[in-house]
Amino acid sequence: xxxxxxxxxxxxxxxxxxxxxxxxxxxxxxxxxxxxxxxxxxxxxxxxxxxxxxxxxxxxxxxxxxxxxxxxxxxxxxxxxxxxxxxxxxxxxxxxxxxxxxxxxxxxxxxxxxxxxxxxxxxxxxxxxxxxxxxxxxxxxxxxxxxxxxxxxxxxxxxxxxxxxxxxxxxxxxxxxxxxxxxxxxxxxxxxxxxxxxxxxxxxxxxxxxxxxxxxxxxxxxxxxxxxxxxxxxxxxxxxxxxxxxxxxxxxxxxxxxxxxxxxxxxxxxxxxxxxxxxxxxxxxxxxxxxxxxxxxxxxxxxxxxxxxxxxxxxxxxxxxxxxxxxxxxxxxxxxxxxxxxxxxxxxxxxxxxxxxxx
Length: 359
Description:
This protein is mostly helical. The protein contains 14 helices and 2 strands, in the order E-H-H-H-H-H-H-H-H-H-H-H-H-H-H-E. The protein has helices at 12-36, 41-49, 51-54, 59-85, 93-111, 119-145, 149-168, 205-223, 225-235, 237-242, 247-270, 285-295, 300-324, 328-350; strands at residues 2-6, 351-355.
């Protein structure tokens, strides 16, 4: 019989460098996958990790895109990390991201064509409120009826996707859109446009808020009582209970905070890079952010680095599809390998394999 035995003292060094090991293993296995698909593996890896940053032909376009892609990933992952640290598993950030985008865009479309500096802040508030309300559903169901927040939050993603398809072809559909599904393009509505703050840099308000959220999360986790409660609940649940920490309040706080960040990430995306509500607006950022959170070790600064790395695989993956004809699904699989190898290496760092019956 094969069994796993928990190590009493896992290596601190190996624990620290595990993300780098996972990236290397992903490169090796990803290269093997590209070779199996008939593509040159070394060239594919180079295009994904090197060309977006340093190729003289593509870098000038790709570098700004790094911040554009990383912004929503970092924002969502920061929110998720709070819950994950406390053992609260919000898998439905994608749904909160979609609802936040819909609510924020709805405010702008309701006020169109009015021009005012107050419209964009109102959109941000609406996006945050939308994400928060969507996250409160699994939070309240768990605290009142002991439901599983993993299943509820995940199922709500599919509800949100159906809602997105409905409003993009109905309530929020562009009346001047010649019958095509999708809302008005918010990039053509000055008061609602999340424009680049520095031309050619990719820096927009969503990226700024993502950086601020990293600093805020670090301070809250290390300097504030709520951060201590989150860490204590995740590391020693019985001690947290003994200390009088209310689990229901923590569930509502963590899921609510996660929903707010996912909601405003959706708002910044729909009013900026995406531009409009469409049936395929959601790009999987909510799910990819789970990988970013774990790859960053649930640490704010680690999430910042992991978000930039994951954004690099997005941009490099698009380049690989363009230059080598690599299937889009293989790029998603390549990104999924990162989480797989991270969890696998974590398993072997914390447990050792034993043969035979245990004592």
